[in-house]
Amino acid sequence: MPHLTRRQLLAFAAAGAARPAAPRKPVVAAHPWVYAATLPANDITPVLPQIFADMQWAGMEAIELMHTALKPPDAVERIGELSRRHKLPVLGTSYSANLWNRAQHAAILDEARLLIPRLAKLGGRTLGTSVGAAGRRKTAAELDAQAELLRQLMRICQAHGVLVNLHNHTYEVADGEYDLNGTLARVPEVKLGPDLNWLLRGGVDPLDFIRRRGSAIVFAHLRDEKRDGTWSEAMGEGDMDYAAMGRALREAGFAGDVAIELAHPKGFRPTRPLRESLRMSREYVRRTMGW
After folding, report:
1. Among 158, 174, 187, 261, which residue has the fewest nearby CB atoms (within 10 Å)?
2. Above 70 in pLDDT, residue 12?
3. Would you say 183 and 131 are in contact if contact means Cβ atoms under 8 Å apart?
């Protein structure tokens, strides 16, 4: 190797320092809705040991809770023990409330002030917030109330190191994204955590959504469906183009995390244990999206 002068060595070092860092690889978590859907009041608390065991077995890197699991007084101790035992970190939680209904604001804030510190104690760093459906177009006054409470939730979360993202079902993005646009017009700085399958079911092309709003996306829910609109038992058994969505997210500079959230049609009888469908889905995301 030829001898390098000090000036050449410094130039090489500077070139290396200027090289952009490799893109952050998303954490791939799972959300327990597929368990909750079959339980009274969708309460996963009684089956949390099974959920943690199944998600660890399936190769998940973390769990996204449902906020109701944080309500019991001993939630931090019990969930923390499960997290340590299964080496499965708590990434965050989903949260749903009628933010548009001003009459419910005091109760929602009381709940948030209870649950968000508990989430933070468990190491959770994301709150996927659904603003609540009204069953119709919300009025301007209701959208104002929704935005006002969303900002208060964002402040509470910020104080505890938790980032709010707007999680959508269909009602937020139906009707030309009326509800979502109403929120973003009032709270433009809020981050997004789209459910890519709910986008599709709400009449929005997920690829187009990512291309239009990618700079604000910090989280995403993943679920698959067949061409006839039926949810598949596991990811990879449907027809959604997650390879293209993964490319679109990378092109948008996505630096957030994702959660696999399986769902099955009403009355569906699984053909395999849920943990197997979770593992198949995890492997599909790794194979198809590179995460």
Report:
1. 158
2. no
3. yes
